[in-house]
Design brief:
With 157 residues, the protein is mostly helical. It is built from five helices and no strands. Helix 3 packs antiparallel against helix 4 and helix 4 packs antiparallel against helix 5. The chain is elongated and about 85 Å long.
């Protein structure tokens, strides 16, 4: 039977019966959830049409942005370290002063990184409480391991 159906579809395609269908080239409207009540469906549609999203979706966006901020802290400090290492090579007599300055900056960056990790974990806990399905929940970030990776990725001068 499936072979017959496929054959009929192929013949209809050859005759051009699918050529000018309404909605061709437009995205399908697959936003109906059969498990929602009509009231909840209407509320979700209104929220979506007006640019709103459920709180957990907004929190996920914030988590993604905060992870990117954490990465930028490390990237910026590594770039600073490379610039200072070049200065030390050019002016070896300034090694002690440049190293002290970098250590102070590195300590501040590690402190800021640690605080952002703490806040990120709070946000992850919040989103996990609001998340409608468990399989999309986020795992908490181990602060000690992350800070150790940070220190290893950007060692002292």
């Amino acid at each position: 039977m499936p072979i017959n159906v496929n054959k009929q579809i192929e013949e209809a395609m050859k005759r051009g019966e699918f050529a000018n269908l309404p909605g061709k080239g437009k995205p399908l409207k697959l936003d109906t959830n059969p498990f929602l009540t009509p009231q909840a469906r209407m509320a979700n549609r209104l929220l979506k049409e007006n640019g709103f999203a459920p709180r957990w979706v907004e929190l996920e966006k914030e988590i993604k942005e905060e992870k990117a901020q954490l990465e930028r802290i490390l990237i910026n400090l590594k770039a600073r370290r490379e610039r200072l290492a070049a200065i030390i090579q050019q002016y070896p007599h300034r090694h002690a002063a440049v190293s002290r300055s970098f250590e102070h900056e590195r300590a501040r960056s590690i402190e800021r990184y640690s605080e952002k990790l703490k806040n990120l974990n709070r946000k992850i806990q919040r989103v996990n409480l609001l998340m409608p399905t468990r399989n999309r929940q986020h795992t908490l970030i181990n602060r000690t391991e992350s800070i150790n990776r940070f220190k290893k990725a950007c060692p002292s001068l």
